[in-house]
Structures are given as C-alpha cells and as structure tokens.
Amino acid sequence: MTKIFDYIKLNKKAFYLYGGMLLGFLLLITVAITTQTATPYNPIAIDVGFAQIAWYAVFILTGITLAATLGYFEFKRLGLNTDILFDGLLYTVPISIIGSRIYYVIFDPTPNYNTLWDVFDLRRGGLSIHGVVITVILFLIIFTKIKKVNFWLITDIVAPGFFIGQIVGRWGNFMNAEAYGPAIQSQWVLNILPAFIREQMFINGVYHHPTFLYEGIWNFVGLVLMLIIRRKRWFKVGDLIGLYLIWYGFGRGLIIEPLRTQGAPGDALRFFGVPINIYLSLTLFMLGGLAIILGKRHVIKDQAFYVDLFVDETGESHADQDVSV
Questions:
Q1: Dihedral angle computed from the Cα positions of residues 106, 111, 116 and 120, in that order, rounded to the nearest 10 degrees
Q2: CA angle 159, 160, 166 (to 5 degrees)
Q3: 125 within a domain of the structure (yes/no)
Q4: Does any domain span residue 31?
Q5: What is the per-residue pLDDT for 17?
Q6: Is the pTM of this model over 0.85?
Q7: Which of 127, 153, 155, 288 could form a disulfide with 241 if both were Cys (CB 3.0 to 4.6 A apart)?
Q8: Domain tally, the chain
Q9: Maximum separation of any 2 CA atoms in the chain, in Å
Q10: What are the backbone angles phi and psi of residue 102, rounded to the nearest 5°?
Q11: Which residue range forms the structural domain that includes residue 22?
C-alpha cells in the first residue's frame, strides 16, 4: 500500500492531467445526454435562431482541445518550444478538416454535390479520420522542415492525439445516431449495453450494434497502452506513430468497418462499390505502420529511444526515472 501511495505522489501531475481529461470527457457526455428528453437525441447542442451548433462539432472540438492539452505537456516534458505546437495547431486543424472532408467526398457512396460549396459545406456532415491522418502527416513533413524540428518526434507526440480525437469525436456520431452496425441478434449484448446507448441505437424498429462505441473502446485501450509504453525504453523515436497506425488499422479494418458495412445504408465509404476504409486500414495504415517501425531501424541506425529525450527544467535527462507525464 505504501508503494502505491508513493507512486501516486511521484506521478501526481499525471493523475491530475489524465484524470481531469477523463472527467471533462465524461461530464460532456453527461450534459449531452441529460439535456435530452427522448430518443433519438436532438443532434443540435445550441440553437440561437440564426445559427446552430451541432453536438458533433462540440465533441470534435473537445477532442482537438484534449489532444492539444496532452501535446502541450509532452512538449514541456521533451523540452520543446511550445510555440511550435500552437503554430502547428493554427494550420493543422483547418487543413485536417479540409483533408478529412475531401477524403469523405471522394469516397462517398451516395454523392450529391452540385457545387463547390456543397463539397465543403460541413453542415451536410461527412468527415473521415483517414483523411485527417493522411493530411496531418503530409503537413508535418513540410512543417517540421520549416521549423527545423524532428519529424518523427513530432509524429510521436501527435499519435496519442489521434486516439483522443477518435475516442471523443465518435460520440458526435452517437448523438447523430450514425456509425452503427447490423441488428443485434444477441440478448447478452443488449443486456450489457447502457440503456441510453441501446435506445439511441434503436433505429427503424431494430437495435443496432453501436460500432462507434466499439471503436472508442478499442482506441481507448490503444491510448492507455501507448501512454504506458512511451515511458519505457522499448520504442525509438518515430515508432509510436507506427504503433498507432498498426493498432487503429487492425481494429478499423478487421473489426469496426466490416460491421459498419452491414449498418446504416451509405455509412461506409466505398470506391466502385468496395468498402475502401477496410483496405486502406489494412494496407496504408497497418502495413504502413509496420514499414515505419521496421524500416527506420535499417535507415536510421542511431535513433534514440523516445524516453531518453525527456528533460526537466534544468535540462537534465530523466531517462532512468519512472515518469508518467
């Protein structure tokens, strides 16, 4: 017991940070649900007459904020200039939204875009995490060269943010009653689902698998594992983004997306009738992640372990200490 308290005391900043982020996320879900009177829930969070703010946007922006918060503390831990983070966010957020939208429009199985405005009209819905990841990584190649910082190190800081963005953002899909799978055939599954999730997934007279929840749980496990192992001398700089691509690609390509193709009509993106996200998840993401981790070890021989780059306020390394922030 003493060791547990000593560990908590040593890592109290981590408990404050992660605990605060988790509580804030749960509070947002609670507010979104308790302000509703019946299912299906109203997807609009704020309506002031001349303008509306959807819950989808609230959850997406919250995910970005939490990811940026975690990135800020990691920048401090690594002794990096946090101005680089803020400069990056200034460009990355709008660029990634545009990239996400373009990706969605390209592979939308039910296209109805008559003008250029229709393509970029976010009120019509339609964003894709695959587009976000591809756009952000391409942008960081240019951005890190301009800022003269290590590209691989920055991607490792961004990797947990991808997880966070998906975990939080998927609840926007929940509020929209979308991103669901086929009808639930198992009474056991129905019994273990919380009532508010089960009722929101009651669509066209049938209870559907909440694939948004399955994806969120999968990503949460991946996030926790990443936050733990990035404090160990197991992975070198650049490996964490590879790990993210492998973990997300496997879960999305083999578990989540096959279910979504059996869910909402037109929900799963397609290319000439082929569910494109299944194949991109298993190739560009999963195999790409493996290529990054294995390829770097042959190309960059002297790459440091991620944890060896930690510094404190005096600039001293913390590589031999058990730190968790």
A1: -70
A2: 100
A3: yes
A4: yes
A5: 87
A6: yes
A7: 155
A8: 1
A9: 66
A10: -60, -45
A11: 2-309
